[in-house]
Amino acid sequence: MNRSPFIALAAAAVVAAVAAPGRAQPPVTGLCGVSPVIDSLLGCASTTGSNPNPPPASGSQATTTTVAPALPPAPPVTRSPTRPQYVPNVLLVRFRSDGPRATALLRRLKIRTERRIPQLHERALFVPERNRTAVLKALRHSPLVTSIGRDEVLHTMAVTTNDMWFGWQWGLRLARFTTAWEEVRGASIVVAVLDTGVNSSQPDLRPGNCSILPIKVMGANGTGDLATVADGIVRATDLGARIINLSLGGPVGLDVLQQAIGYANSKGVVVVAAAGNSGVSLPQYPAAYPGVISVAATDPSDRLYPWSEYGPWVSVGAPGCNVAPVFSGGYGEFCGTSSATPLVAGLAALVLSAQPTATPTQVATAIERSAKHIDAVLANGRIDAAAALAPLTRTILPPIRITNWLTGVLTTAARSRSYIRTIGGGSVIATLRSRGTGALSLTLVDSLGQRISRSGRTPIVLRRQLAAGSLRVAIHGKRHGRMAYTLILSYLAKP
What we know:
Number of strands: 24
Distance between the termini: 48 Å
Number of helices: 11
Radius of gyration: 23 Å
Helix content: 10-25%
Largest sheet: 6 strands, antiparallel
Shape: globular
Structural class: alpha+beta
Number of domains: 2
Strand content: 25-35%
CATH architecture of the largest domain: 3-Layer(aba) Sandwich
CATH topology of the largest domain: Rossmann fold
């Protein structure tokens, strides 16, 4: 019986790529508690080619071996659309400055804002068809507007699964993750999965030292709009993700999506995206954007699956049929570039674990240059985890500075907010800005208990040499009512 994956299309494979194979783990009882890192980020209250039969145990005279059922051929992979689809009556508009003047313009035109991405000065606007001509004319003539586009529908690089238990993961062995695990077992790296959501009770979210940050941007039907995905990328970046996994895409892509990718890269975030399942060389986005590691799907013989996208715009290939949890509670075969992409995201997590100060370009270079050459039209070959890590365990890369842009609102009921980051020793710069004239206080406390605090009207800027380890940042409002704020936190990544 064919069933859909129970968790987000990427989450289980990301965990598999950075976790020790075969380790039993306790169940997860909620997103709060998945890991201390995620608790702090989410503000929680204080056709396979493997042998499906496992080998018999050695050293025993009479053993009973449970044999996994053989998997039948994988069902057809759902093809990715090659023609763009758009969200009805929605325009994406970028402003030179998304402030009061932009709001006044939209109010005058009687336009409703569906989604706002202040970091990119971008809004998704609902414009009824009957008013579209007049609204477009007004926006195009406004000096406040820099670009206007349509909101594209993006699709998960969807797959079909077989609800059959499958014990061995050929892709992890072929890409030498088992060898890589002997060298690096993960660090406090946050991998954001932007997809249909994550089932937090899934025990596969427990293995390894890396953490999954779920950002729901797609509906249960596997589709979502481009503005929501762009907003999710910005949100994951601001929440401290070091890697973003995008097992989704569309045939056109718009400037706002590329701007979101650029925003993530500028904050030190590695972005990995699925190349698509149409079996053609047509670029899919965001995979084809600069600054993205794009991923095709390869089989056990190191050939591209016939449904995988290909071309010189595709960065690497990775095993494209893997094991994932399914609705029944068991495990099944999971095929598609959506399945291949999390393996590369997992490898990026291992690279960052070996060299936490590596930039996105350095991570991509380590993965791409170490890829094994195969007979396929790709910019590089099929990933090799052990080869990617080998030079990093001997090379010290220069430290990088990470900058987080964090936004929030203080209210009468919730007058304080706090954030926790893991930092390297050195200079920390925190800048707090807010709307309105009310006073705020900003406090930093490092791992040694060293405390620095300042109160008053914003902007408030704190600069201090702080110890490596955990950094707690607290914001407190001194008056009743709502107050929106932006916190810019700059620090050195922990080696």
